[in-house]
Specification:
heterotrimer, A mainly alpha (362), B alpha/beta (391), C alpha+beta (477), B: 391 residues, alpha/beta, GMP Synthetase, Chain A, domain 3, 10-stranded mixed beta sheet, 4-stranded mixed beta sheet, 13 helices, 35% helix, C: 477 residues, alpha+beta, 3 domains, 5-stranded antiparallel beta sheet, 15 helices
């Protein structure tokens, strides 16, 4: 097995939340104002359930492609994998835009050359070409790093938060809540990221529960972060695009010691860089499962996808807001179709698959 | 075979190419960077209204060279004008050739006129600029911000640093100054109460006469040598400008500012002057609450634990040893404080400045409660002041 | 002619042909029966007194049969064996062991009276311990294995000698604990050593390159030590040790990065102190790698990394420096590397002059002349000191420091972050003999964390590192 169950849990608890700290909070506030916690709580609960479903799929030790080819044959299974990889590449776009504007904001004092972001694709290409075992080990290192980063930021900022700003509950109304849920779907597709990993880690008793609880744990941390974020920025929260990088600067010790909070911010940004490459990694995995020849195909696909994404990022360089809103506010429905539909469908069909396998075995 | 050999050596070749690219960008020294030598580190920005828009005076830190025998921070003030604050910054860039960097801008000073118009016309730039910190302090000054920033301070080489000393946490605890940051002011401005406050800065010459000076501030330790007029100025910020809908509507007196501090519960170790005595505040509980039933009524309460700090007449040794304050003296102090709080409320009510965020409190309570909101002048008040001495 | 012939003249001539060098001496004598003997030995590396006392004198009085077994029994030297192949006999002569040939026998006799000049056991300069053993390995493989055997008095300690190097014929000892070391690693090491085909093995570092799974790796793949106590501790944990003749540096495999943050002294001081110093080493190493890079990035791209007062001080210092901050830092760093290189290689008696030149001329004068700034010198000095907190990783960290500096000067803080990402991926994906380099952190092995950066009390370290996969996990009850 390439990954261990612990590494999956680490990813769910302390790497997945890193991808939701840049644009999502402010986009959410634009729809729900002080009611931002409710849609996210719902998303977290739904994703926890989906993570549970995906991890249940891992019980039989087969990859998703393996399961699909048993059910519908190799050709359709390959087609499904290609479609799923296309979705993952589509889903990769928002984290990439986030990474790009984040880089400009927190790593530079003046607007840098727009190619300053380009080295990221080199990094992503290298990461995506690496075997899954490396990815799992990276999560082993990133999880504690993220926890140190986020807890550091929260510790420095919680004293400035006015949690009363979250009141009154329900002010956004059903419409705001609905929009909040819909428009954050673009950030909650972690169950889909897990699908290509199915069959590559050992299923131990209770892993599905553990995984779901880990995701829930990470989700609670995210909710606390959002509460602190709104508590600090309240009415101007909507303007705070990289809140995690700004929240801690109001800590009174900062003035005397300089921006020590950058240690924590960079730790989070470091984890975020890995998470940003995660959808592409998952796409490469899905395709190499389907077509084999991982040693050659993985570096080739990784290079090709990252080069294509770089070209797209350069093409959409001056329309970041429009790009993000097109994906998260118009095409948001695509995310649940794949992130929820795919695991649930596979889970529903797994009894059929099991019966077939039993018949074959006999 | 050749292809295989190429593929085997490809990663190494790729690393060499990458290393070459990095080396080229390193030595060409141009990857969109603006290094420290091409940068104007703005310590403070002063904004004034002009007929055509704004005038921004940037106090720029000037490195002292390798001679570190003198302390302090040298600075120079550069003025830029334009229709927007952004234009002013561009004008400074054009004048100096330095790229203005606001990341260390810890103070934004508004001239009185800029404050009386909507302050957010000027502050909007700082709020939306991701390279300007919204943790910077805000203040209004008497006259123009340019004059104040250009003044030679008797306290520090850079006037902005002297002003920041006034707004320190220690000063805040004394209760004599009420500070605010851009973030807090913006939350107030965009919030339900649409109100806020800033410290109101006055300057006076050490000899007592008011006035300003301009030009470059001298290097540390050299006193006023660089000032044009040579007159050293002292700043004070014991008054507080209050804002409604972003406009400065009034200025709180020193006593009202202190009462405001006490209501916020900020004071520790500050002194409360009363009839012939001065009390030091050891504990300060302050709150402003709002009751809806039967009609809207605000309760402004201050609960203090004090000790005697000084008298205007000599005491017997026995009394000094006792360090006691009489009930009558405490009652007089309570009465004086009640008066200051009442006056503070009146001033806010007149200018419809919801300084205590009562409207926001009501909104947070419930939508139904929020519907009962009335103008401040129609809200009843109850002032509770309790001062206890040490026993 | 490949083997020893019964005709002594022919065999002696063949041997002489194989060993034409002038330092190979030939001594002829006859025994009590008048049988002729010829002895070949290498001058200077053979103990001639011993050879005379234990071989020649007994044989001169010998009157028995010409059979090798009987002659060997008559010779009083403790280490005697016979050999037919001329090539092997010649190799023994070259190794210092005299070879005896006589008429009427198709075997030669090898007497173990080698006397190789060797340095006395002393404290190694690279691994000084304030507390703990002070013995260090020397250049003699036999002496080194003796030092190991002295510490591991168990039959489970296996020492197997291999010969590596076409011309150097270097003796290499592979040491492991039977039943504790992973057999696949032992086999792997032996297989790789046997496959080495080079002329000369001047030092064990040559072998390290061949023993690595990734020979081009930036990060070293083989542990090194000069101290027998560390060597034995590593073998006892389940590693395989390699000692090469002519090198005082022994190798241990599989290697984990965390080993270099541990020092032998950590086990002789209280656990809390050991934990503190390990974190201190990590901190020093990170400072050494990142400080120059962040210093540059803070001046070029992200001023906020520094408090404003410090920034203004730096700005004042660099005001009149003709070079850009990144070039200035690169220059100072290169000067440091040159000084470092020169101070190691330079004869001791000019060392003082070098210090004067380095500190006064290059340091103070360069600053006062305005070539470089004081902060740059301070940063590089601090970084240089930090590097030596983990001396076994100096080669890797100095390259990494330079790489970080280059990306900091070209891409800025984000470049540092991404390069760190590359390094992380590289470290976690590197394995040697199936053991991950970044273990026990990646993959995380909770139990092994007790002796990684944290250092638990010895009584708590009941098991061997799980990452090594030893078949005998428990090391104490």
């Amino acid at each position: 097995m390439k990954l261990s169950a612990r590494q999956i849990c680490f990813f769910l608890a302390a790497v997945a939340p890193a991808g939701k700290l840049v644009l999502m909070p402010s986009q959410l506030v634009a729809q729900t104002a002080n009611d931002l916690l409710l849609p996210v709580a719902l998303q977290i609960l739904a994703q926890s359930a989906l993570v549970f479903a995906v991890l249940l799929l891992a019980r039989n030790g087969r990859t998703v492609y393996g399961m699909l080819s048993d059910m519908v044959g190799g050709f359709f299974a390959k087609a499904a994998c290609v479609l799923f990889a296309a979705f993952l590449l589509f889903a990769a776009f928002v984290p990439l835009v986030e990474q790009k504007i984040l880089v400009q904001s927190i790593f530079y004092d003046t607007l840098p050359s727009y190619v300053a972001f380009a080295p990221f694709f080199l990094f992503a290409a290298y990461l995506c070409a690496k075997p899954l075992a490396s990815l799992g080990r990276v999560w082993d290192m990133l999880a504690p790093l993220f926890l140190v980063g986020i807890l550091g930021v929260l510790l420095l900022s919680v004293g400035n938060a006015d949690f009363g700003a979250l009141l009154p509950v329900g002010a956004a109304g059903a419409g705001g809540f609905g929009r909040g849920v819909a428009y954050t779907a673009g950030w909650f597709f972690d169950a889909a990221l897990l699908l290509p990993l199915v069959g590559k880690f050992p299923y131990r008793k209770g892993l599905a529960w553990k995984g779901a609880l880990c995701y829930l744990g990470g989700g609670i941390l995210l909710l606390f972060f959002l509460a602190v974020y709104y508590g600090i920025f309240a009415e101007i929260a909507v303007t705070q695009l990289f809140a995690f990088a700004h929240m801690s600067k109001y800590f009174s010790g900062i003035t005397a010691m300089g921006r020590i909070d950058y240690l924590f911010i960079f730790a989070i940004a470091f984890v975020m860089a890995f998470y940003t490459a995660m959808p592409v990694q998952a796409a490469v995995d899905a395709l190499t499962d389907a077509f084999g020849h991982r040693r050659v195909l993985a570096p080739t696909l990784s290079t090709a996808f990252n080069a294509a994404l770089l070209a797209l990022m350069l093409a959409f360089n001056f329309v970041p807001s429009a790009t993000v809103s097109a994906i998260t506010q118009r095409a948001f429905w695509i995310f649940p179709v794949f992130a929820a539909g795919a695991p649930l469908l596979l889970l529903a069909l797994s009894p059929v698959l099991n019966k077939r396998r039993e018949r074959h075995a006999r | 075979m050749r292809a295989k050999r190429f593929l085997r050596s490809f990663p190494m070749k790729l690393w060499i190419i990458l290393a070459a690219i990095v080396a080229i960008t390193f030595f060409s020294n141009d990857f969109g960077l603006v290094d420290i030598q091409k940068t104007a580190i703005i310590l403070a920005a002063g904004i004034d209204r002009t007929a055509d828009g704004f005038s921004l005076t940037a106090q720029i830190a000037v490195p002292k060279g390798s001679d570190r025998t003198t302390g302090g921070t040298s600075s120079v003030e550069i003025e830029g004008q334009g229709a927007t604050v952004s234009d002013c910054i561009s004008a400074i860039y054009a004048k100096t050739g330095w790229v203005p960097k606001l990341v260390f801008c810890d103070l934004v000073l508004l001239g009185e006129e800029a404050a009386r118009a909507n302050a957010f016309d000027a502050l909007d730039f700082f709020l939306r600029n991701e390279y300007a910190p919204d943790s910077c302090l805000l203040a209004v000054c008497e006259g123009t911000a340019a004059e104040t920033l250009k003044a030679t301070s008797a306290i520090d080489d850079a006037s902005s640093l002297a002003l920041e000393k006034l707004f320190s946490d220690a000063a805040k605890k004394s209760g004599r100054v009420m500070t605010t940051t851009l973030r807090e002011f913006a939350i107030g401005y965009y919030g339900r109460s649409a109100s806020g406050y800033m410290p109101y800065v006055r300057m006076s010459s050490q000899s007592g006469a008011q006035g300003g000076s301009g030009g470059q501030n001298a290097a540390g330790g050299q006193g006023a040598a660089g000032g044009q007029s040579g007159q050293e100025m002292i700043f004070s910020a014991e008054q507080t400008a209050v804002f409604s809908q972003g406009r400065m509507t009034d200025v709180l007196t020193e006593a009202e500012t202190f009462a405001f501090s006490l209501l916020k519960g900020n004071v520790y170790g500050g002194t409360l002057p009363s009839d012939g005595i001065t009390l030091a505040v050891l504990r300060n509980d302050g709150s402003v609450s709002l009751a809806e039933e039967p009609t809207l009524q605000a309760t402004l309460s201050v609960d203090l634990k004090v000790r005697l700090a000084g008298r205007d007449a000599p005491s017997s040794l026995e009394n000094v040893a006792k360090d006691s304050v009489t009930e009558e003296e405490l009652a007089a102090a309570e009465s004086a404080l009640r008066g200051a709080i009442g006056s503070l409320w009146e001033r806010c009510a007149q200018s419809e400045c919801d300084l205590f965020n009562l409207r926001r409190t009501l909104y947070r309570r419930s939508a139904a409660a929020y519907g009962t909101w009335k103008p401040l002048s129609q809200i009843g008040t109850e002032i509770r002041v309790r001062i206890e001495g040490l026993r | 002619m490949k083997n020893v012939n019964e005709k002594l003249d022919a065999t002696a001539a063949a041997m002489k042909k194989l060993l034409p060098a002038q330092d190979i001496l030939q001594f002829s004598f006859s025994d009590g029966t008048g049988r002729q003997y010829v002895c070949f030995f290498a001058d200077a590396i053979t103990d001639k007194d011993l050879l005379g006392e234990q071989v020649f004198r007994p044989l001169m009085e010998y009157r028995g049969e010409a059979r090798a077994k009987e002659i060997a029994a008559h010779v009083t030297a403790p280490e005697v064996r016979t050999e037919r192949a001329l090539g092997k006999l010649a190799a023994e002569v070259l190794a210092g062991n005299p070879v005896l040939l006589w008429d009427g026998m198709d075997e030669g006799l090898i007497a173990g009276t080698k006397k190789v000049p060797a340095r006395a056991v002393s404290e190694p300069p690279t691994d000084v311990a304030i507390k703990g053993p002070r013995e260090g390995f020397v250049e003699d493989v036999k002496l080194n294995t003796a030092l190991v055997r002295k510490r591991l008095k168990t039959g489970e300690l296996k020492i197997e000698f291999l010969t590596v190097g076409r011309r150097s014929q270097t003796a290499v000892a592979v040491c492991w604990l039977e039943g504790t070391s992973v057999q696949s690693a032992v086999d792997g090491v032996k297989e790789k050593l046997s496959a080495i085909d080079i002329d000369n093995v001047p030092d064990s570092s040559y072998l390290a390159r061949f023993l690595s799974d990734r020979p081009y790796s930036l990060v070293k793949q083989v542990g090194t030590t000069e101290k027998p106590d560390i060597f034995c501790a590593k073998i006892a944990e389940g590693r395989v040790g390699v000692i090469a003749d002519g090198s005082p540096i022994a190798l241990t495999l599989p290697y984990m990065l965390v080993e270099d943050f541990q020092s032998s002294e950590d086990y002789f001081v209280p656990a809390a102190r050991a934990t503190f110093t390990r974190f201190l080493r990590l901190f020093a190493l990170l400072v050494a790698i990142y400080l120059p890079a962040f210093y540059i990035a803070s001046q070029l791209f992200k001023l906020q990394l520094l408090p404003v007062k410090l920034l203004l001080t730096i700005a004042g210092s660099i005001q009149d420096i003709p070079l850009s901050p990144s070039l200035e830092m690169l220059l100072v760093l290169l000067v440091l590397e040159v000084l470092n290189e020169a101070s190691i290689r330079m004869p001791k008696y000019v060392g003082m002059a070098l210090s004067v030149v380095g500190a006064l001329v290059l340091g103070e004068t360069a600053v006062s002349a305005g070539f470089v700034s004081t902060p740059a010198i301070i940063i590089v000095a601090f970084s240089g000191i930090g590097l030596y907190a983990v001396p076994n990783l100096i080669e890797e960290t100095s390259v990494l420091r330079l790489a970080m500096l280059l990306v900091a000067g070209s891409v800025g803080t984000y470049g540092i972050l991404l390069l760190s990402g590359f390094v992380l991926i590289y470290l976690v994906s590197t394995e040697n003999y199936g053991v991950p380099l970044a273990a026990p952190f990646a993959p995380l092995t909770r139990r092994d964390l007790r002796d990684a950066l944290l250092k638990y009390n010895l009584a708590s370290l009941k098991t061997r590192p799980a990452a090594l996969g030893s078949p005998n996990r428990r090391r104490q009850k």
